[in-house]
Amino acid sequence: MNEMLNPYIAGAPVVEASMFFGREDVFGWIERSLEGKYVNHILVLHGQRRVGKTSILKQIPNFLPDRYIQVFFDLQGRTGTTLDRFLWWLASEITRTLKREHGIDLPKPDRKDFEDIEYLINGFLPGIRTKLGDYVLLLTFDEFDSLDRPEIQETLSQPLIAYLRRLIEVEGLNFIFSIGSSGDKLENMQASYTDFFKSALYRKISFLTKDDIQHLVTKPIEGLIQYEEEAVRRIGEITSGHPYFTQLMCHELFSHCQKTGDRTISAEDVEAVLEDVVERGTVNLKFVWDEASDLEKWILATLAQMDGGDNQELAQALTEQHVRFSEPDLNSAILHLRDKDILRDDNRFVIHLMRLWLVTNRPIDRVREELEEVNPIANRFIEIGDEYRDRGEAEQAIEYYEQALNLNPGNLKAQNNIASVHLEQKDYKEAVQAFESALKIDDEDVVAKTGYCEANLALGEQARGRKEYDDAIHYYRQVLEINPNHVEVKQRSTKLQNLVNDYEEAQQAIREKRYESAVELLQGIIVIDPTYKATTRLLTEAVEARKALPFWRHPWLLPAVGVLTFVLLVIFLGPQLWAAVSTAIANRPAATELVISETGKVTETPDLLVAEFSSAPTTETPTITPTPETVAAFYEPIQAYIESQPPTFADDFETKNDLWGTTSEDIAISTLIDSGELNIFDNVELSEYNSSTNDLSGLGVTFPVNDLLSAKDFAIKFDLQMPHVGSEEYIGVVFRSRPFTHSSADNSGYTIKFFSTGKWELIQNEDETLIATGSFGQKVGQFSGRVLLIVREQNLAVYMNEILLYDDSVLSVPETSITNGFTVEGTAVKFRFVEFWNLDGLEFSTTKITGAPTIIQTLTPRPTPTITPTPAWGPNFVESMLERITDVTPDFTEDFSNPESGWEMIVGSDGSFQIVDGVARVTVKKDERSHFLNETVDSLTDRDFIMEMDARVVEGEAAIDLWTHFIFNENPSDSKNVGFLAQPAESTWSVTIDSAQGRNSLGGNGIISPVGQYTHITIILTDQKVAFSLNGNPVAYFEDPFLDEPGGFHFNCDGLITGGICEFDNIKIWKLP
User: Fold this and answer.
1) Which residues are within 8 A (CB) of 696 and not within 5 positions of it... i.e. 6 or more apart?
2) 376-484: CATH superfamily
3) Model pTM greater than 0.90?
């Protein structure tokens, strides 16, 4: 069971019919509504976030009659465009769906045709009508409320709605729109486009029925795990049948069984995973909170504490919290929360998880801090105080802040402002006291904690300057109580504490007449501070006292006697003793062994940091052996031939070459050749790849569709690179296949696939049999790989960067005409310099290879280094490196003030990149990654460097994702990818090293800034040591003696569950000598 994949889907739309349960009433309503008198009406599905609207749209083909051909459009991330481009995208999706799902082959829409927006209605749709017969196109639009954004009303929303009103009248088309019910989205759309929605039929998508819950919980693991009846009932109570939270709950329970080996799930198990479920569902639970009005937030937080109550009891509780409201406003807010399926009629929570999240994350005190409109008069006093503060009139500002506190003693903003004014005036003791008062209101408030630390740090520095070290240590300790990871303060406190301890120890040594120790300690103190207390006088006294000691009391006497004794033993015992000493020296552990033995003890990881180590990928690691002599004997003559003879065909792509012909999508390959590269994009032309409308999913592209590379026996060399990285994306060489067609490669022959994750597979195409698989130890998206394939009789050899990956005699030799070529699946590939040798009819003096296949690596892989939070060399390393660049001008600075600053945009299939408003902005959809890079940055980070930057997630659950790829010249196939990931929505970060030998990672919570705020990131690499620092706090280190040269530094935005927007700014790089 541990190896079985978790069948429950928490977050993503449910595509597999086997994992979709219930909703028969919804599909029945859809089918009835599309027929009869409603045939020209539009249908609107609306409901809560994550309630299953997208999954319903995805399942329509499984429930409606076959005469409906669904075309699915996801509008999220597609609205930043113009009407003509949007219509071209619609036509492209229709064409692709008809071809992929129904085998209806249509010419690919030409974007230029859609510059006339009438072309869709008057040209494109009539053209496909004749192909459809009795079929009806059902156009389904997900996230239709994306059109509600104010900034796109004139450019897209209004003209598109007007155009859709005309499309509704076109025969053979039906429409379904999905709109979220969160906030007032549905009401806003209805109000803005009254004429469009007046004929709409609406269906609210709510929660699953009791029977549907039973099936969703038990069916996916039937025969594997047994749910007790009470456990299923309890899951229904907690989630109320909300599909997302039900899946999430079951996902955590399945993971619990994987860890424990249990085969039965009880109600107690359900309670045990509740905390994890609430934590994982935080983003979606918080979404309800974020969209609530201020009064609704007070209602939610209060009812969570009360666990329900009638309106009168709620009103009394709100009054006690000094919340201002009217009875009509309260009743309206309660009704709104009930309409959104958040509250029941008895004011209890529909979804129990919502209450649990509120109790933990939104206690009343925190709500008071967040909602500042509790007392408008107090807020007005704060505003007046702010005006005085801006003018530099500190006393008047404090006076008005204090008046606000008199009206509302729990007003955190007023208390923080008083403390901040004292801090600005350098009244540090008053500031400390004021911030302490703020922390009594909310001990987790970031402003108060930061100000408290800053004031204590300033007091500590003042005390240190006055040589009052005990006081300085006290203030430093106050800082460390709030921020125990403050490296600078920790170092200063330790340094002063050591000085104080050394002075006391020196005094004790003098009292015990250990003058040698006293002198050593006092000399160390004088180096730091020659004026500290009576250090100079004590040192003089200790030196004089040491001189007065009789010679037998000197500490050097015992070692001298020992040395003399050893010399005498050697003289008398001779070689026997020397041999014993030599043996001991030989058996002494090496320096590395000593480090391992001394650090091998496992210590408890701090709560802040969670380290994990996962072993190599599930594919079996190849045996590391030298190249067998039989392999060399067979292929060496062939390699000698291709090294000495010109290829049958070669292309360096410096000019457009018509010999290539076309791809399986009927695109002229010569049009994809540019500047020494052939750029192939699965289902996307080159000019479309960097647009926000491209889509890399589909059937794949094969080429060339001619006999250019035809041969039974051949050798082919080519360079390749995949800018886009994903788990199922690959470039393949199809060989000994029947001729390609303009629809796809014929299902015959063999394919060797190189995945962007660093995995390769050899497939027999006819029945998709996996013949062999392995790893070439690096991600193709991060390097240029030189591939050599030799196909000779029954034999195949595969080389990557001159390293033999695979060899065996497994091929059949076809008798009919055959062809060879390339296939690209779900990604973009750059080819450089292709060479092809036709070996048919040539004779080579070779030895036949028999026996088991050899999967070979000829060099010893380097171990994956361990990432640690606090190595011995860590803090001093970071401090000393940062001191080196103090007052040093960076070798590279980028504030993105110039939109034409030379950044290369390599976006994902649904991403966009802009330099706007002085930042680099990357927009990405869920489960996608978009990245960008700069040649200057690459050149400066190829050796030792220090890099600083500010990065943030503006919205969504996206993550800041930075990585670089280290290439080892000694062993190109043994490389490492070093990455840093920060996810502000979850307040988590991680540093990861991926290599062919496995993964090592270290992560933690906190430190990074929340969504909307910048995190300052520092990366240091020098002398095979690497350190990462967040907001001035070092968080992770590793040391690797085999680090050579990074192969490029990439800045990424990772869409994760929901997608989002990332922004980067203030990038600085110092090149280290």
Assistant:
1) 681, 682, 683, 684, 724, 729, 826, 827, 828, 909
2) Tetratricopeptide repeat domain (1.25.40.10)
3) no
